[in-house]
Amino acid sequence: MKAIFFDLDGTLLHHTREYRNVLTDTFESVQGTANDEWIETYNEAFYELFSRCEPEPIRRAFSRIGDCSDPDALVEVLREKETEMYQPPENVHADLERLSGDYALGVLTNGVPEWQKHKLQTYDLNHHFDMVVVSYEAGAHKPDTAPYRMAEQRLPADSYAMIGDSETDIEGAQNAGWSAHRYHGEGFEGFPDAIEWK
Ligand SMILES: [Mg+2]
User: How far apart are the first and last CA of the chain?
Assistant: First the structure.
C-alpha cells in the first residue's frame, strides 16, 4: 500500500489571519496591552528554542519577556487563539474519507505534539489518519529527514508522498526519497491524481 502524509498548518488547516495578530491578541487578553518589543522577544526566543527542539519552547519564550507576569496564562490563551486561526478546506472530511479507501494516510507536521494534536482534535480530523508524526518527537524539523524516517517506521508502506504548502515540506520529502506535491490551498478534490509518484 502507498502512504500519503499531509502537512498540518497551511495544508490540512488553512490560515485565516497573520500569526503576529494572534500574538497581539494573546498579549492584550492576558496583559491588557501588547507591544512590538514583546512580540520580537517572543518570536526570537521561540525560534531559537524550537529550532533546537528544546522542551516547552512556548512557555520559555514568554518567560524571556521581563514584563510578562504570567507565562502559563499566555501559553493557554495562545494555544486557543492559534487553534482558532485555522479553518479546514471545504469538503476535507469527504476527500480524506475517499482517499483512506486506497491509501494509508498520515500527518507529518513541524511543531509541538500536544499543540498539533489539539488542532487535529478540535477540527475532528484525527480519525482520518493512521499515524500522526510531530517533528518534536523526531528531534528535528522538516526539511531534516529525521521526521520522514520516523513516519516510515511508524507507518510501513511501499512508497510515500508528502503534500505540503511549504518549501520545507517538499525539500524534506525529496531528501527522504519521497514523492512530493506542493499544496496551494486548492483543497483535496484533485487527489490522488495530483500526485506524481516517483
Ligand atoms: Mg505548512
Answer: 15
